[in-house]
Amino acid sequence: MLLKSALLALSATLAAAVPTLEAKDNYFVNPATGNRFQIVGVAYQPGGSAGYKPQEGFDPLSRKDHCLRDAALMQILGVNTIRVYNLSPDLNHDECASIFNAAGIYMLLDVNSPLVGESLTDFNTWESYYASYLNRTFAVVEAFKSYPNTLAFFSGNEVISNIPSAGVVPPYVRAVTRDLKNYIAKHSTRPIPVGYSAADVRDVLFDSFNYFQCREEGVDNDMSHADLFALNSYSWCGNSTFEKSGYDKLVAGFKGSSVPVFYSEYGCNDVTPRPFTEVSAIYGPQMTDTFSGGVVYEYVQERNNYGLVEIDEKDGSVKILTDFYTFRDQLANLDFTQIQGAKPPSGDPPKAPVCDSKLITTKGFNGNFTLPEVPPGAPEIIAKGVSPKPVGKLVDISNYKVTFSVKNPDDSSLTNLEVKPIANDGINQPGSNTAEGTTPTGTSAAPAASSSKAAAGRQATAFVFPAVAMGAFAFAAGITI
């Protein structure tokens, strides 16, 4: 009996691993099964700009107890992916990465930050593209490349947001994509996709897509070609429809993509509480041939009113908001056996178009595919690796129990909350974790919806200026992340 108990205790600490995924042609694929993978994600930047303070020793994935708390709640939510915007390669992320891995949750990671010198600017972009900037992006890769649940890296986020920025930025984002992919090919034991997260500004959206997904003619292995394309879109508001929201136009515009396409942010809050009726469309038959899921914005409540939970930064306690359970229930209505069990269609996959100025349709958008040379000093970093080199690895977690107070919208408490480690090669989905005290699935009662002035006009214009967690900080600093 004692031996059995000891073995059980030991097995609880060992970190089972999610299957590493690949971007194969226009889908994410589990190479072990051949099945497609649909991203069911949530944006995760606790504290907004205050949650990224490397000088004080923390970022969103550096505090074990916080990650335990949030991973357990995300298991209840039913998501399988987090998007994290700002990370410091100088901090240790082993425990948090291991916790999310055990929870069956992947990580989509931005390599940039809002601090000066840690991102490309959307004006005079050439002044922000230099070796020390690239060194930091490579260091982020080094810090996260060895975690099996690292799904992909974003080389840029909404750096192209209007015609003026579209006239300058594209070659530099494509160059950063090239540099990151060359670094990964040289220093990672597995390929990790690199792509761009775009603002849903229709004037420049599809030109951005074509600019980044095309391949240079005559180049067998074009490293500047993006492995994926994502968009931050808030055009589906309230109880909208596939046509009214403009989702039909997005599907038409991305049909035939040569790379995976997905929402890197969605979740309009013109109408609150949010009904999340777009979920059934995103994972339904009208979209899944073209899209690979999406990331709802966002996990933690900030001043912009997109959160699923409120966190008291003083004591770490959590108040679950109505939107949390509404989103959970929408996910629970999906058939995940079918969604995550689909095979890519047979036949030849779509081919990337050849890079040509004729792909660009908008006047003022940069159609020049001659990229800037790798800046002085950077080729040596790509060849030899960053120094000092951060090293990430999965570690054993001895206790998955959550120590913080977590309450429902009605102030009742969740009890015995803990991460439930997923079996090896497993992925989180609705129903994998049901803590005592959670509102039963399908019974979340939302107050009557009302119009929100904070996001007014977003549906009509069909684009978003930043709902990004770090947006206000970035604008104040004069940089785009």
UniProtKB/TrEMBL annotation:
The answer to keyword Zinc-finger applying to this record is no
EC numbers? 2.4.1.-
In its UniProt record, which GO terms are filed under biological process? Answer: fungal-type cell wall (1->3)-beta-D-glucan biosynthetic process; fungal-type cell wall organization
Q: What is the lineage of its organism?
A: Eukaryota, Fungi, Dikarya, Ascomycota, Pezizomycotina
Q: Annotated region Disordered: where?
A: 422-450
Question: What is the annotated localization of this protein?
Answer: Cell membrane
- The protein's name is 1,3-beta-glucanosyltransferase
What Pfam families does the database record attribute to this sequence? Answer: Glyco_hydro_72
Of the GO CC terms on this record, one is:
plasma membrane
The secretion signal range is 1-17
Keyword annotations: Glycoprotein, GPI-anchor, Lipoprotein, Membrane, Signal, Transferase
Organism field = Apodospora peruviana
- What GO molecular function terms would the record report? 1,3-beta-glucanosyltransferase activity
Membrane topology, as annotated, equals:
Lipid-anchor; GPI-anchor
Residue spans of biased composition, Low complexity class: 432-450
Entry function: Splits internally a 1,3-beta-glucan molecule and transfers the newly generated reducing end (the donor) to the non-reducing end of another 1,3-beta-glucan molecule (the acceptor) forming a 1,3-beta linkage, resulting in the elongation of 1,3-beta-glucan chains in the cell wall.
**PANTHER family per the UniProt record, alphabetical:** 1,3-BETA-GLUCANOSYLTRANSFERASE GAS1, 1,3-BETA-GLUCANOSYLTRANSFERASE GAS3-RELATED
Q: List the InterPro entries hit by this protein, alphabetically.
A: GH, Glucanosyltransferase
Q: Which family does it belong to?
A: Belongs to the glycosyl hydrolase 72 family.
Return the broad EC class.
Answer: transferase
